[in-house]
Design brief:
The chain is an alpha+beta fold. Helices cover about 70% and strands about 10% of the residues. It has a six-stranded antiparallel beta sheet with strand order 2-1-4-5-8-9. A six-stranded mixed beta sheet has the order 10-14-15-3-16-17, sandwiched between helices. A three-stranded antiparallel beta sheet has the order 11-12-13. Helix 8 (about 240-305) packs across helix 20 (about 725-745). The protein is flat, with a radius of gyration of 70 Å. The two termini are about 20 Å apart.
Length: about 1000
């Protein structure tokens, strides 16, 4: 990478535009960047860094780049940095503008413009620059990729800060590790250590969880085994836990199986004793049952003897009931006939009560004949009924014709009234439409004039306002000009007074024995004295600042006056000379006319619609009038025909209905009379038939009672039993017979008789013996079941524990492997004798390369005395890997770099910085660094050492490099001819380049 040109504008302490020609400075190989403290030497290096990476080193980058702007810059000057360089064979130009706050173009206040970036490349073939990108991110990625290093690496390699490397020489291993880690990007190795530690913790947690689950199963096995199992005294994660748990489980399973065998033997013995007790209890209970059975049979036999008379009476009652059952059908027949006779007599009485008095005494035959006569008369009225229906229809039709005639007459009258005023209504509507059309045309013409009138009115009002603003701005500009003249006169007066008293000011700085800055003499016999009105430098600077502020305010007032006058001219050109009040009145009159025209034109569409509806109504009413006249003419003949047919039908009906109101009423009378006569005849015939059947039933009942052995039918009816009484009596007879047979059977049983002859059976003693044997059997079964469950549970838990151990085996192996790797990379393993972390190991290799590269230059700077070596010895109880020692060839001893003197520390750190630059360059892909900067430290060297250091720096030209030295040392200005001087002043710093 070679720098060619740097342009600065309003950057840092530089208020104006400054240029650095690095090609001219690099011709000599070495060039000096010097200037007073605070002049801006570091700002030049910051500008290079900002152009490449868009930011400056350290804490100077703040406020999103707002602080990079120079406080000395004019308000309208934009901060800009442009750097031209060659990197990787490509000539590039980078331009960056940080965000800046500027006055708004319109209105008052400030606004912030965003940061801008440009990247261009020089095309040698075309002989012109071509644009590559305007994106901050794209430019940053492109530059980082070409240089092969980050901003931090660039600041350490190209902008060599000697103070940092002096601290690096004296720092401990941890501090060196942080710096080297940033330069060589060894974060990935630290991430490897972190990842291994995380994997170790994760694997350890999994193993602990598995051991905890295994111990939980061991506790469950102990609960199942009781006193047969002892848990191992190991915690989760400790070695041997799995084997101890499995061994304890095997012992518990063996003891549990022995207990199961003993419990099974005890159960067999208890079950045999219980079977014997059960058999003895069953024998005793059988004897007791037979004894109770014999005693109960004797008691039942005595009870049967006592109830024998009641049994014989029941048998007699049952025999009479069986005889009466032969008479039961005749009784039922007679009762049915009697009931039917009563119903028939009642129906006949009801039917005769509805007949006229002349027919009440007639028999069934007479009633039937009267019914036939009435039916014949009813048949003759059917033709008259149809005639009556036709007459009703004629009346309805005649009324409908009258109603239609009245409706047509009303329609004709309404149509005549409406049509009489049609011509007048149509003429009025046509007049409204024409007036609305004229108003619409007038509104369109007025609408064209509205916007120009409003614009002219607005311009007139703005013209009147700007006229007052112009007078105010002119007055302010005049006052600002007067204040500028007064401030300038005051400043010139103060400056003249200070020049008159400058001798006293210089005399105040004289010291005995030191040369005078004017004449060079060391003796000062009569130095000038300050008078009462003496003006110092601060007073002059305050007067100058007041004059500059007044000048800035005058410029602002004049700019304001110009803007106002331009706006006034534009407003006057548009509005003319007419007063704003006159234009406003014209505008209001125009608006009034336009609103009135719009309102008049708004009735056009409603009027057109109303005319269309009126014309349609005219056509409809004309058609209705014509149709109504035709209908009235055709209706006259129809009415005459209906009247003639109605007269003929009314004469025919008067003869047919007789004294009734109508034929229908007469027919209804005859229909009711026929129905009553027919019903009375039917009920009379039915009553006669039922009376005959009742007589026949009485005769059959008397004959049946006599043959059954009963004196009268009433006696047979009394002997009958209903179904419920018959069933109850039969049940009693059957129960007595069954009980008698059962008692005889029991008293005849040989086993029962033999048991009755034995002593009473002792059932309680036998039950107590059987209960004792059953309890012993249950206890033995419970013990056997508990032993079985214990064995089953232990087998299940043992199998689960064994499976868990098998599952944990790969996790334990993984944990052991990861733990060994994590301890080894973290430097805590016994295999890592130097306790060196992985990142430290990599950085140690880099530090060894840096020390070797630095030694080449350090030996030349120290006349072959010193050599830098890397040391990986441990310091105390700490870790090793990043030690740095210096070997003194004069004494042959190796010692710590902290023992070097100030000058030795400087050129050692310089050699270290140059060596680090070479190593980082190789690490960045071999990008050649043709321009380097070295910051301070040369004042601590004696003349011989300074010559040797400069010779080493001058030897860099052999590799076509240029080195810029940033220093205050005055002797360097004599030794190095190519110089870039930073000169500070009240209006900002400037750059002066010479000696190239």
């Amino acid at each position: 990478m070679r720098l060619h040109r740097l342009d600065l504008t309003a950057f840092g302490p530089f208020g104006g535009a400054q240029t650095v020609d690095f090609d001219a400075l690099s011709t000599a190989g070495l060039f000096l960047l010097h200037g007073p403290t605070g002049a801006g030497k570091t700002s030049v290096l910051d500008a290079v860094c900002y152009a490449l990476y868009g930011s400056v080193p350290g804490a100077r980058q703040s406020g999103q780049g707002m602080t990079l702007r120079s406080d000395h810059a004019a308000a309208g000057t934009r901060t800009e940095v442009r750097l031209e360089l060659t990197v990787a064979g490509r000539r590039l130009e980078i331009t960056r503008q940080p965000p800046w706050e500027r006055p708004k173009l319109r209105g008052k206040g400030m606004t912030v413009d965003k940061a801008q970036s440009w990247l261009r490349e020089y095309d040698a073939t075309a002989g012109a620059w071509k644009d590559l990108s305007r994106s901050h991110n794209e430019i940053g990625e492109e530059i980082t990729q070409l240089l092969g290093m980050s901003r931090e690496q660039f600041c350490q390699v190209v902008l060599l800060p000697q103070g940092d490397f002096a601290r690096f020489l004296r720092a401990d291993a941890e501090a060196r590790g942080k710096l080297l880690g940033r330069l060589f990007d060894t974060q990935r190795f630290a991430e490897v250590e972190k990842r291994l530690a995380e994997r170790r913790r994760a694997a350890e947690a999994q193993v602990r969880d598995g051991d905890a689950a295994l111990l939980a199963d061991a506790h469950r096995m102990q609960q199942a085994a009781g006193d047969l199992m002892e848990l191992p005294g190991l915690a989760p994660g400790e070695p041997g836990l799995a084997d101890a748990v499995l061994g304890a489980a095997a012992i518990a399973r063996s003891a549990a199986r022995e207990q199961l065998t003993v419990a099974h033997s005890r159960l067999l013995a208890a079950e045999s004793a219980q079977a014997a007790a059960d058999r003895a209890l069953a024998d005793v209970r059988e004897v007791a049952r037979l004894q109770r059975r014999f005693a109960e049979a004797r008691e039942r036999a005595v009870l049967l003897e006592e109830r024998a008379e009641g049994y014989r009476q029941a048998q007699t009652r049952m025999e009479r009931a069986r005889k009466a059952e032969a008479v039961a059908p005749a009784l039922e027949l007679r009762e049915a006939a009697e009931a039917e006779h009563r119903r028939a007599a009642a129906a006949e009485a009801r039917a005769r009560g509805l007949l006229p008095e002349t027919l009440v005494g007639e028999g069934a035959a007479g009633l039937a004949a009267a019914a036939r006569r009435a039916a014949e008369e009813l048949g003759g009225l059917e033709s008259a009924r149809r005639t009556e229906q036709r007459l009703a229809a004629l009346v309805d039709e005649r009324e409908e014709l009258d109603r239609q005639q009245r409706a047509d007459e009303d329609l004709l009258q309404d149509a005549e009234d409406w049509l009489a005023g049609w011509e007048q209504s149509r003429a009025a509507l046509q007049t409204r439409i024409e007036a609305a059309q004229e108003a619409a045309t007038r509104a369109e013409q007025l609408a064209v004039r509205r916007e120009p009138a409003q614009q002219r009115l607005d311009a007139a009002r703005l013209r009147d306002q700007l006229a007052g603003d112009t007078e105010s701005a002119a007055e302010q500009a005049r006052l600002a000009q007067e204040r500028v003249l007064a401030a300038k006169a005051h400043w010139l007066d103060v400056k003249e007074r200070r020049l008159n008293g400058i001798a006293a000011e210089l005399a105040a700085q004289l010291k005995d024995g030191e040369p005078c800055a004017v004449c060079g003499a060391t003796d000062h016999p009569a130095p000038a004295r300050k008078d009462a009105g003496h003006v110092d430098r601060e007073a002059e600077e305050r007067a100058l600042a007041a004059y500059q502020q007044a000048e800035e305010r005058r410029t602002e007032r004049e700019q304001r006056l110009g803007v106002v006058r331009e706006a006034l001219a534009a407003a006057t050109a548009e509005a003319g000379d007419a007063p704003a009040e006159q234009l406003a009145a014209e505008r209001e009159e125009l608006e009034r006319l336009y609103t009135q025209a719009r309102r008049d034109a708004s009735v056009l569409h409603p009027a057109q619609e109303e005319l269309r509806r009126a014309e349609a109504e005219y056509e409809r009413r004309s058609a209705d009038r014509q149709q109504a006249a035709v209908r009235s003419a055709s209706r006259v003949g129809h009415r005459e025909r209906l009247d003639r047919e109605r007269a003929a039908l009314e004469a025919e009906l008067a003869q047919a209905r007789g004294s009734a109101d109508s034929v229908a009423a007469r027919a209804a009378q005859l229909e009711r009379q026929v129905a009553l006569l027919t019903d009375a005849a039917d009920t009379a015939r039915a009553a006669e038939d039922i009376a005959q059947r009742l007589k026949d039933a009485d005769a059959r009942l008397a004959d049946a009672a006599f043959r059954a052995g009963f004196d009268t039918p009433q006696a047979a009816a009394a002997a009958l039993l209903d179904d419920a009484a018959h069933r109850e009596l039969q049940r009693r007879l059957d129960a007595w017979q069954s009980e008698e047979a059962a008692v005889r059977a029991v008293l005849a049983e040989a086993d029962t008789v033999a048991a009755a002859q034995q002593p009473p059976a002792d059932v309680l003693s036998a039950e107590r013996a059987q209960a004792t044997a059953a309890q012993r059997a249950r206890d033995a079964a419970s013990a056997r079941d508990a032993a079985t469950r214990r064995c089953t549970e232990l087998d299940r838990l043992s199998a689960r524990a064994a499976a868990a151990v098998r599952r944990l085996a790969p996790l334990r192996e993984e944990y052991d492997r990861v733990a060994r790797m994590a301890a080894l990379t973290a430097g805590t393993s016994a295999d890592n004798g130097r306790r060196m972390r992985l990142e430290s190991y990599v950085l140690a290799a880099r530090l060894e390369q840096v020390a070797a590269a630095a030694t080449v230059r350090l030996q030349r700077m120290s006349s072959g005395r010193y050599t830098l070596v890397h040391s990986d010895d441990r310091t105390g109880r700490g870790r090793s890997g990043l030690g740095l020692h210096v070997v003194d060839a004069w004494t042959g001893r190796e010692r710590d770099t902290a023992t070097l003197s100030g000058g030795e520390t400087f050129f050692a750190s310089l050699a270290l910085a140059l060596g680090l630059a070479d190593v980082v360059t190789d690490e960045a892909g071999g990008v050649r660094l043709d321009t380097l900067f070295i910051d301070e430290g040369f004042g601590s060297l004696d003349d011989q050492t300074l010559d040797e250091v400069l010779d080493v720096l001058d030897s860099l030209r052999e590799r076509d490099r240029s080195v810029g030295i940033v220093s205050h040392v005055a002797d360097l200005r004599r030794r190095i001819h190519a110089q870039l001087e930073v000169v500070k002043g009240r209006s900002g710093s400037v750059l002066r380049q010479r000696g190239h």
